[in-house]
Amino acid sequence: YFSGGQDEPYRLGVTGSSATAVQALTDAAGSELTTSSGRPVEIVDLTGQDPATTLGEDSADQAGHVDMVLDLAADQPELMVQEKADQGVVAALSALIQQRALADQVAALGGDPAAVSQAVAEAAPSVTVLDPPSSDRADAGVRYTTLMIVNILLFIVIMGGGQVIAMGVVEEKSSRIVEILLACVRPTSLLAGKVIGTGLAVISSYALIAVVAAATAAVMDVLPNTDLRLDSVVAVMLVWMVVGFATFAILFGAAGALVSRQEDMGNVTMPIMMLAMVPYMLSFVMAMGSPQSVVWRVLAYIPPFSAFLMPARLTFGYSDWGEQAIALAIALAVLPLLVRLAARVYTRAVTRMGARVPLKEVLGRRAA
């Protein structure tokens, strides 16, 4: 009732034909004949019956009612309907009848209809896609799963480690411990110690997880249907994990120096979090689209996008070691500039208590 008759078969009556022809159509109906809306077609033998009677409106509720009649008695087959013919059925029947006529002509000329049909089928051109989307690859699922794991590890290390550094800076500033520490070491050395110490602890922990997981996958042979090299993926991930952490960690440390309360830390670290979130999400978009497009190739060289896009490109097989080396060189060249900027902010803001220190004020004048 609720299906609107979509589950009921479309009844095709056949008349003026032998039982063999009816059986051939019945076999074809199981695989080729469907209506435009996808309804299956049921073949009904109307031998000895009046087609007009079975098509009439008076027979609509009767068991012998059909929706279309195919008359094969004449030289030219004829289709009869009460009101409107289903174009899907008409097209399929036309193809079957034409194929049958071609086979008869080939047989009459002494040829083999089966061989001709096979030759015609094999004459169709093959399609070669030079730059298929990543999602169309046979091992796309395996590579995408690997990318998810790599990205999650990168994101946890970069965001988690950065938050720890920012919280430590704010805690030392709010408790005024930083004033005691600065009496012994320079501000830049203090910030560098935080970044290096936190980085060693966080990166070593998650690097161990990645190495053990990759080794287990290799020993258990859980990736048999792909040419993905997990050792290369893990190596590239670890390199970009270090570079990405260093890039964002110094920014988190500088941001933490701008406030004196933990409650205000979210306001200054949110822009940095978004700066990491954008390339994280874009790496998935790139992987499922066309990684070889000019936009993605250029964007992958730009820090901080390279920390997420370069491992993604290698995971899907669209990057070589030369591309990785160039992107790494660019990231390492930009890193000293970020260190200089972060050190300036940290040095001038970490000893200023009270309200949030405006970033413009810190960058625009020398410390008193």
From TrEMBL:
<dbReference type="GO" id="GO:0016020">
    <property type="term" value="C:membrane"/>
</dbReference>
<protein>
    <submittedName>
        <fullName>ABC superfamily ATP binding cassette transporter permease</fullName>
    </submittedName>
</protein>
<keyword id="KW-0472">Membrane</keyword>
<dbReference type="GO" id="GO:0140359">
    <property type="term" value="F:ABC-type transporter activity"/>
</dbReference>
<feature type="transmembrane region" description="Helical">
    <location>
        <begin position="195"/>
        <end position="220"/>
    </location>
</feature>
<feature type="transmembrane region" description="Helical">
    <location>
        <begin position="324"/>
        <end position="343"/>
    </location>
</feature>
<feature type="domain" description="ABC-2 type transporter transmembrane">
    <location>
        <begin position="85"/>
        <end position="339"/>
    </location>
</feature>
<dbReference type="Pfam" id="PF12698">
    <property type="entry name" value="ABC2_membrane_3"/>
</dbReference>
<keyword id="KW-1133">Transmembrane helix</keyword>
<feature type="transmembrane region" description="Helical">
    <location>
        <begin position="144"/>
        <end position="166"/>
    </location>
</feature>
<feature type="transmembrane region" description="Helical">
    <location>
        <begin position="232"/>
        <end position="256"/>
    </location>
</feature>
<dbReference type="InterPro" id="IPR013525">
    <property type="entry name" value="ABC2_TM"/>
</dbReference>
<feature type="transmembrane region" description="Helical">
    <location>
        <begin position="294"/>
        <end position="312"/>
    </location>
</feature>
<keyword id="KW-0812">Transmembrane</keyword>
<feature type="transmembrane region" description="Helical">
    <location>
        <begin position="268"/>
        <end position="287"/>
    </location>
</feature>
